[in-house]
Design a protein that fits this description.
6 helices; 0% strand; mainly alpha
Length: 134
């Protein structure tokens, strides 16, 4: 296993741990948040947004190249119809199930096996998208 894979593995563990501690691995908490009954996840999402903003917009100004290799590239993707449709499908799925891919995986880690049905639906949706619309 090379250094990049080790760092990615550790990052995934930290990400999953953060989701579990923050409550996102429990669909009932996510659904409560989406119904505006519990705004605790706003703090979690705000912190994640802040870290991402710094990583994308600030770090490249002070670091010549990424620590794990490669290069910093400007974002070139424009907002498209497919992005909006995908976001709407994601939002409806998240609202109905209380799961997104990251929280579903962390939910498995805490023993929530019924989440497997939602994960199967995510994989099916990704397959259909890639097979027929990609």
């Amino acid at each position: 296993m090379n250094n990049r894979n080790i760092v990615l593995f550790i990052g995934g563990i930290v990400f999953g741990f953060g989701l579990a501690v923050g409550g996102m691995s429990k669909p009932e908490i996510v659904l409560s948040f989406l119904q505006l009954k519990d705004i605790g996840l706003v703090v979690l999402m705000g912190a994640a947004t802040g870290v991402t903003f710094v990583a994308i917009n600030v770090v490249p100004r002070f670091v010549e190249k990424p620590v794990l290799g490669g290069e910093f590239k400007p974002r070139t993707r424009a907002l498209s119809r497919n992005t909006l449709i995908g976001a709407a499908i994601f939002g409806v799925g998240w609202g109905l199930s209380g799961q997104c891919p990251g929280s579903a995986l962390s939910s498995l880690g805490i023993g929530n096996l019924p989440v497997l049905l939602g994960m199967a639906a995510m994989f099916l949706g990704a397959y259909v998208m890639g097979r027929f619309f990609g």
